[in-house]
Each structure stands twice: as C-alpha cells, then as structure tokens.
Amino acid sequence: MPARQDRPASTARGIHHTALISSDVRRTVEFYQGLLGFPLIDMFENRDLAGSTHFFFDVGNGNTIAFFDLPGVDVGPYAEVLGGLHHLAISMEPQHWQEIRDRMDAQSVQYLLESGTSIYFRDPDGARVELIADPLGEMYGRSVF
Questions:
Q1: Mean pLDDT, to the nearest integer, of 69-92?
Q2: Which end of the chain, N or C, is surrounded by fewer C-beta atoms within 10 Å?
Q3: How far apart are CA 57 and CA 52, in angstroms?
Q4: pTM for this structure?
Q5: Where does 11-143 sit in CATH, by number?
Q6: pLDDT higher for 136 or 75?
Q7: What distance in Å separates the CA atoms of residue 70 and residue 112, rounded to the nearest whole number?
Q8: Which has the higher per-residue pLDDT, 81 or 36?
C-alpha cells in the first residue's frame, strides 16, 4: 500500500450513518443507549413507510447508527450473507470499553474477546457489533492509515 502522504485524499467526509433494522424500538434503545452508552439523538417517522420509526444513536466523532422498525413487514431473522453486513466496529476509549465489558458481564451478555482490545457480540436483533479499544485509524496497534 502506498504511504499515507503518497495517497490521494478521500472525497468523503465520513460515514453519515449506518442503518440497521430493529424489531422492537424500546429494546433497541435500552441496548444501545442503556447498555452501550450511545445517546439516542433523534427519532421520527420513516418517510418510506407510514408508522415506521427512524431513530439515531450518537457513536461519537460526528457518527451515528440509525435504525428502522418496520411494523407489519416480516423481515425474518438477521442473517450474515455474502455481500451483507458482517459487523459494525465502534472505537472507544479503553476505560469506556472496560466499563461496557463490565456491564455486559453483570448482565450476562455473551461476547467473544479477541486480541485483548475487541469484543464481539450480537445486538437484540442479531447484528454483530464489535467494540474496539484501539483508536480510530488503528487496528491491534497497527496504523491502517
């Protein structure tokens, strides 16, 4: 890979949001805000489906995770498929990472610890989430920029 100074600058400002499906708004809010500590920052009716809720959580640094609930639509269980979302990785300060890990232990939330800085787990609808204590732009102590 070319050195950072030899690469062209990206045309993007960042990821505006990643949207996932929620089968239960209250349960999703309790999980992402209550357990993980991501503040709920907005909620409104989804423009694409009357009665559907579109809601957002702040995951820091101007980034959000968005969810839709789709009342009356059978979306089936979450499935990792070729070409689909494998997991969502969220960087956090080591002290917050440890606090959340302690809360997960206290609530018997199952997770997989990987390389001492990542925990992988499923959200209430089955989406795989990774919390990583490495800084943005770094993976297991190695710069990815």
A1: 81
A2: N
A3: 17
A4: 0.87
A5: 3.10.180.10
A6: 136
A7: 30
A8: 36
* Domain range list for the chain: 11-143
Reply yes or no on whether the pLDDT at 13 is more than 90.
no
Q: How far apart are the first and last CA of the chain?
A: 10
Q: Tokens for 131, please give them.
A: 């919390």
Type of residue found at 88: L
3-class DSSP string for the chain: CCCHHHCCCCCCCCCCEEEEEECCHHHHHHHHHHHCCCCEEEEEECCCCCCCEEEEEECCCCCEEEEEECCCCCCCCCCCCCCCCCCEEEECCHHHHHHHHHHHHHCCCCCEEECCCEEEEECCCCCEEEEECCCCCEECCEECC
Q: Looking at the predicted structure, is the pLDDT value of residue 36 above 90?
A: yes
